[in-house]
């Protein structure tokens, strides 16, 4: 096990969690703008969602590679996921750290899905194009 590799992954997971929180915030912001009738700002909110989604995509890819690499150094099969690291960690400390990251990410992703579902329903009800599909596909790949 390389402690340095695990520490670097932990830092990546924190950054990814921050991006997930930012995406949730942007969805909430968009919902509030729409609810308040401030449609003038919706295009800006949509662009901000796209920016965060792009950053999250890049982060997710590098995090997946780091997870797989660390998993292999811990003797896990290639393509390990965060859940696999938490379950296959060589000691209780790393198991707890990765379990905490996993739990927190599942919670925020659940919230994102709920807000996105509300937003998507509103778009459909208004006959508008649902721009949230890209982020929905990305969210499904994070864990």
UniProtKB/TrEMBL annotation:
Superkingdom, natural source: Bacteria
Keyword annotations of the record: Cell projection, Cilium, Flagellum
Name the record gives this protein: Flagellar protein FlgN
Species of the source: Leifsonia shinshuensis
């Amino acid at each position: 096990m390389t402690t340095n590799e695990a520490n670097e992954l932990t830092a990546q997971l924190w950054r990814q969690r921050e991006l997930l929180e930012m995406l949730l915030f942007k969805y909430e912001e968009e919902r509030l703008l729409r609810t308040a009738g401030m449609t003038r700002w919706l295009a800006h909110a949509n662009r901000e969602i796209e920016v965060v989604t792009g950053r999250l995509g890049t982060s997710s890819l590098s995090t997946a590679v780091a997870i797989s690499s660390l998993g292999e150094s811990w003797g896990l099969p290639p393509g390990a996921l965060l859940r696999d690291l938490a379950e296959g960690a060589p000691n209780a400390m790393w198991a707890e750290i990765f379990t905490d990251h996993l739990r927190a990410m599942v919670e925020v992703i659940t919230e994102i899905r709920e807000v996105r579902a509300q937003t998507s329903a509103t778009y459909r009800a208004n006959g508008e194009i649902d721009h949230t599909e890209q982020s929905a596909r990305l969210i499904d790949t994070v864990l």
